[in-house]
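Forum: Protein Structure Q&A
Topic: Joint prediction for protein chains with partners

I've read a bunch of threads here and the consensus seems to be that you should model interacting components together rather than docking separate models afterwards. I'd like to see that in practice. Below is the full input, 434 residues plus whatever partners are listed. Could one of the regulars post the assembled result?
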Amino acid sequence: MASQDPTAVERFINGILPENPVYRQLLGMCPTLAVTGAVKPAMTMAAATAFVLISANVMISLIRGLLKPHLRILVFTLTIATFVTIADRFLAAYMYQMSKQLGPYVPLIIVNCVIISRCEICSSKQRVGVAIADGVGMSLGFALALGSIATVREILGSGTWFGLPVMPESWPKWGIMVLPPGAFLTLGLLLGAAEWIGRKRAEKAKQNR
Amino acid sequence: MDEQPTRKGYIGQAWLVILLSLVYGGALAGVETALRETIAENKRRETYDRIPVLVPGADGDKTREVNQADEVIVADADGNWQRVYLAVAADGAPAGWVLPAGGQGFADRIDVLIGLDAQASTITGLYVLDQKETPGLGNFITSEALFTNQFAGKSADDPLTVVTTDPISGSHQIKAITGATISSESVCRIVNRTLATFKQPIRRRALQGGKATAQAPPGPGKDTQ
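Posted by a regular:
Agreed with the consensus. Here's the joint model:
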């Protein structure tokens, strides 16, 4: 059984593109839609999620031998909630304005399915090294997804990137892009693009074989 | 799971959960202890930043100077006490008061700042300092246009009531946010309760006139002079 599980390197690479949590698994849609109006909050959310994901993966992997099957979800939730609270307090102490801007979305990391799914799929079954690689890979994939959506929305909607002006003064800011509909439009188009690229690559691989 | 679970069986099943709860609880207590003061300082800084907006005529720098030199603590007859901020104009004349308040909202605790005029008879403004209400509904309590602008000009003596229809102008009615009546009522309840408790102590303090008077030793119940 264990020999069929992906290795650390495979876990790491899978997390970034082949099994990207947003574009491939369609998990974590709440932060993906809610905090991607600008790159800065999106990256803060990605960093907070990465902290929780990697910490929870390590913790669960360390105690995986002790888990009772019917109590495992409870242990996952307890662990995730603890790390989310720590992340929330740190943001409130050291990034106060950002913490206010993200508001309830930081505590809502608790219900981000990306994290609990990694606990279930990977870290409750594999060693710590693999769990770390998996956590880092998935975090990078999540950051990539949030970053790409936020980049499109901030540039088109505000004419800036990371708060720096990148579009000419005359750029008519597309206000809709920073509003909720812009999140759905961007996500839909980028999802379509990711799917299209994925199919092209699959076709190419078939021809080469 | 055929056997009848015994007490030992329960512990055998749940010991990891119990142990983890204790460990995590301890870790969170540690984090909270380490960061509490930094977070409180962030809130104080934001409070000072909001005072000129909440109290017309107040000067931010002068207010900070006066309040940092002397913390004003008010207490009621029952021994409830809390810090208030005396908002002063640039020349040091009192312009009003800012009263921090908090209580349970729909989702989590709501913290607000209430601005009062110099006699503590009229509300001059309201600012939501911290909230975790439902995004898209309850979090509109932070919106000036939708919600908080309604508080300025209301009398501090009449308890505010929340209505879902258009409020009668000049009354003490506050229009609830559509879809977030509980959040709206929570804010009004926090304001009503805090004003009922602390408006008399503040008025007594205001009658002594002038500056953030000096010698009041900060501490519970010591503010009866």
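The first strand of chain A starts at residue 160 and ends at 161.
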